Amino acid sequence: MSFLQQLEQSVSQIPDRFKEMSEAELNQIIQESKHRLGEDLFIPGHHYQKEEVIAFADARGDSLGLAQLSANTSAKHIVFCGVHFMAETADILSTDEQHVYLPDLRAGCSMADMADIQQTEKSWNSLTSQLGDTILPITYVNSTAAIKAFVGRNGGATVTSSNATSIIEWAFTQKERILFLPDQHLGRNTAYELGVPLEQMAIWDPILEKLHFEGDEQNIKVILWKGHCSVHENFTVQNVHDVREKHPEMNIIVHPECSHEVVQISDESGSTRKIIETIENAPAGSSWAIGTEMNLVKRLIKENPDKYIMSLNPHMCPCLTMNRIDLAHLAWCLDSLVNDDPINRIEVDPQIAKEATLALNRMLNSN
User: Fold this and answer.
1) 178, 260, 265, 267, 309 from 253: Cα distances, Å
2) Which CATH number does 3-108+321-348 carry?
3) CB 49 within 8 A of CB 77
4) Which of 44, 55, 157, 219 might form a disulfide with 66, Cβ 3.0–4.6 angstroms?
5) Is the peptide bond before 206 cis (omega within 30 degrees of 0)?
6) 3-class DSSP state for residue 157?
7) In which band, very low, low, confident or very high, does the pLDDT at 4 lie, cut at 50, 70 and 90?
């Protein structure tokens, strides 16, 4: 069954009774299902999930960390409260005896969807014909299994926002140039931090199938895929200026998926883990404007009452695809497991999983 067919099935088959239940009824089904499934069930919850969902998570964290935790449990059923590529990674890393489920198959990632395998293979053919065998592909873990597999079979590695610097350093020991997928901002910010000037960075437009670069193409060091996170790209230079004007004492910390201009004028930037640790370790009474997903910002506000915290963009909305996971879909998914009629299983093709594992292992072995 194709993903689109699964998607249609997910949308059409959720029983009305789950959509019509009260929050208390849904909570009861989830609690009872967790009790009945016991150690056979593991629910990882990504930091960007709604509070009502994260409350039932057995662990919360970033995408790769949760996939690794899932694989290291003895649970037979992994109900991933995140988005599709995260569940794919969990399936890749887990054993044959473990099955991964996504409560709502509509929970995708717009960034991951900006690089599909057909576009990537066409771009690779074009770029290697222009620049020869000088390019190593690197992909953010926020990408599909097929993209990870492409990178794996072409000698490259995955990166996270925490280890991107060290992996790109490694990549430059392998080849003269890198192709960074699918988020141009993380690629640009990381390469710049390593000393690569903006003038040596090109952009590949997968829609126009065109390399954008001014000057001699032999000077290119980094080729950035024209993709972005729709949440983090909404933090702007004007947002930073507004905070500086209204709250001159406030610290600004942003995720490296934000634009280069925003990162450069903020006080700090870093992965979700770094943002959380920075806020937790900050002195009482300090004030922070945070440029990342709103559900996480709200959670940090709640869990750090001794600090003044706000979103860098006061009009920011939570990640819409992450918010597809709600109590109704979680209850439906768990109830289906209790009744031995599971829905929304995520299965990565074995060959794709094998090649994607190469990319993941090159990252893990390089740290």
Assistant:
1) 27, 13, 10, 6, 11
2) 3.40.50.10800
3) no
4) 44
5) no
6) strand
7) very low
Q: Which two tokens stand for residue 316?
A: 């920011």
Tokens of 302: 């709640």
Distance, CA of 82 to CA of 103 (rounded, Å): 9
pLDDT of 367: 59
Q: Give yes or no on whether 112-230 and 232-311 have one common fold.
A: yes
pLDDT of 297-329, one tens digit each? 999 999 999 999 999 998 888 888 888 999 999
Q: Name the pTM for this structure.
A: 0.93
CATH class of 112-230: alpha beta
d(C-alpha 275, C-alpha 64), whole Å: 17
What is the model's pLDDT at position 10? 46
C-alpha–C-alpha distance, residues 71 and 90, integer Å: 7
Sign of CA dihedral 167, 101, 229, 316: negative
Find out whether 242 and 219 touch, Cβ atoms under 8 Å: no
Tokens standing for 321?
Answer: 């695809």
CB 213 within 8 A of CB 172: no
Q: For the structural domain made of 232-311, what CATH number should be given?
A: 3.40.50.10800
- Per DSSP, the residues of 349-367 read -HHHHHHHHHHHHHHHHH-
State pLDDT tens for residues 222-255: 999 999 999 999 999 999 999 999 999 999 999 9
Q: Where are the domains of the chain?
A: 3-108+321-348, 112-230, 232-311
